[in-house]
Amino acid sequence: MDSNTEVLLGWRAGLHGWDALVERYSRLVWSVPRSFRLSHTDAADVYQCTWLCLAEHLTRLRRPEHLGAWLVRTATRQSIAVVRARGREVSFDLWEPESALPAPEEVVLTNDRQRRLWAALMTLNERCQRLLRIAAHSPELSYAQVADALGIKVGSVGSTRTRCLADLRRKLGDLR
Questions:
Q1: Whether pTM exceeds 0.70
Q2: Would you give the end-to-end CA distance of the chain in angstroms?
Q3: What is the mean pLDDT of residues 52-79?
Q4: CB under 8 Å to 146, separation ≥6 — which residues?
Q5: So where are the chain's domains?
Q6: So what's the architecture of 103-176 in CATH?
Q7: Of 33-42, 61-70, 81-90, 118-127, which range is least confident?
Q8: What DSSP assignment string belongs to 97-158?
Q9: pLDDT digits (tens, 9 = 90+) for 77-122
């Protein structure tokens, strides 16, 4: 597989590097707006805007080896902008048949579990939050891709994830 630098240089020279970049980072870019729990439509907008920003700034990238981190930062900024624009709207799919709706007690229990999980997650440091969001929304990513997105060493991804999960479990236990 070509390095980001080779792919970017190839794209600038008119070769087909863009497709390789999209294929390499597509799941990572998608994981960011989904980690913000955006609707599919809003997540698609963030995804598209992130790639558009890359196309606009491609010639100004100084460190192509950190492209994954750049894409995550850009998608994060785009996601935050959407969240701010939408406020705390909750969208309901009005076309869903009533039989598919969960029982009220299931909704209450699920909402309580999610509230406790998010409350515990938000008490973790930013590195752990980002790592766990990527792991939850894009489990198929390799350690190298996760390390690139977070700007950490590949060898520390597993141990960092283990520490973050242990910390999250402890904090969830404290919230009971």
A1: no
A2: 47
A3: 85
A4: 131, 134, 135, 157
A5: 1-91, 103-176
A6: Orthogonal Bundle (1.10)
A7: 81-90
A8: -GGGSPPHHHHHHHHHHHHHHHHHHHTS-HHHHHHHHHHHH-TTS-HHHHHHHHTS-GGGHH
A9: 998 888 888 765 555 554 455 556 677 788 788 788 888 888 888 8
Inter-residue contact 49 to 57 (CB < 8 Å)? no
Alpha-carbon distances of 74 from 44, 78, 138, rounded to whole Å: 14, 6, 17
Q: Which two tokens stand for residue 132?
A: 């766990």
The amino acid at 77: R
The whole-angstrom separation of Cα 122 and Cα 79 is 17
Q: What is the CATH number of domain 1-91?
A: 1.10.1740.10
List the structure tokens of 78: 């785009």
Give the distance, in angstroms, between the CA of residue 3 and the centroid of all CA atoms in the same chain.
22
Side-chain half-sphere CA neighbours of 121 within 13 A:
16
Burial of 91 (0-12, 13-18, 19+ CB in 10 A): exposed
